[in-house]
Design brief:
single chain; alpha+beta; Rossmann fold; Immunoglobulin-like; seven-stranded antiparallel β-sheet; 25 strands; 20% helix; transmembrane; methyltransferase; nucleus; rRNA methyltransferase activity
Length: 484
Amino acid sequence: MAPPRGRGGSGGGFSGGGFRGGRGDGGGRGRGRGFSGGRGGGGRGSAMRGGGMRGRGGGRGRGGGGMRGGSKVVVEPHRHEGVFIAKGKEDALVTKNMVPGETVYNEKKVSVQNEDGTKVEYRVWNPFRSKLAAAILGGVDDVWIKPGAKVLYLGAASGTTVSHVSDIVGPIGVVYAVEFSHRSGRDLVNMAKKRTNVIPIIEDARHPAKYRMLVGMVDVIFSDVAQPDQARILALNASYFLKAGGHFVISIKANCIDSTVPAEAVFESEVKKMVQEQLKPSEQVTLEPFERDHACVRNMNLSLVFLLILLVGAAAGILYLVFQPKLPKYSIDRLQITQFNLTSNSSLTATFDVTITARNPNKKVGVYYEGGSRISVWYTGTSLCQGSLPRFYQGHRNTTVLDVVLSGQTDDANTLITSLQQQQQQTGIIPLNLRVIQPVRIKLGEFKLMKVKFRVRCRLDVDNLAANNAINIRSSSCKFRFTI
């Protein structure tokens, strides 16, 4: 059957640069040019490599008001159930509008007409205004918010993200939206008047006992309260409302907790607090480039963990005896800076050429390096440049040398430049951190295993960051781990 055809919805075209080429979270190739909030959408599109996303099925249409340039628009399912990708000249994350014809924050709309003449309307989900959207585009493995789910949303504000969660869970799901501010609460209540699956609660999330009679047991808690004690707030609400085997996703804003230390340190501290609260965090995703110094942390289904432990425990001994696997090794061999300039508007533009050596010491184990990787160079809590690794297969006892170009721009960089200069003058070295998140598939003999993520962190001490000068790596060390 031919896919349904239709026309782009209202609200003006997409603009700016957001999603760009390469491979993205959805797994396919794409050439989306950009995404920005549009009128009222907030913020410029910031380049994100690997943005093209491809799913299965979906409607087709002609771009009108919603998709710029008159090209065909294809709406395809994202791997997160209830979320979609609108693909035209630009790619955009969208949700199916539960209240057709209505917008919440002047977001763009995309309308797809089915073969029977009926129309389906989608709303563009702006990752610069929604931390949950930013986490999804950042590659978070799961958020567990899906059709039919019951969600407790802490820190609902005026309802921007809540409205998209409402779209996702649909008419048989429910969103309990808790917001303390009465000013934002008025907007939240007005939005909920047209969305029957949203229950607005104007209360302080630190005191769940005050609204315990309004909230049932939920499948998922999403927390965006931006408070120093947010881990305790999440744990307290989970003790009241989260069903057994339920899940949580929490957004962490580093400078709301401690602005005197690097964001990394804040994230690590908050994860430790969650462990102390018995929340069992399992994955952390930074929200760059959409939100600076933000991260999302989620937990894992404990029943799946238990099953996984049983399966792994049963197979690990046999696999080890047969294949005798060894961890891959990585090293940074060369760092060349081709651009490191402070512009007249105090923005820092940086381009690094990095040579990475990947060694596979195994006799019977191969590694498929998949698309969707992320590599970045950091100084303290600031990302200087980003890029991605190519797709390739690394065979047995193989050494592969990779030359990677990383580029980026940092706004308001005067303080950063001063810190770099002082560091170099006082110690003679500049400490950098190189981070790699690489999806891979392990090949054992003739069998390809499930996809996992290699996470590599390298500490580099260099003597300077001057462009077109010889950069000496005084010392380097890399740590490796993998996650499911």
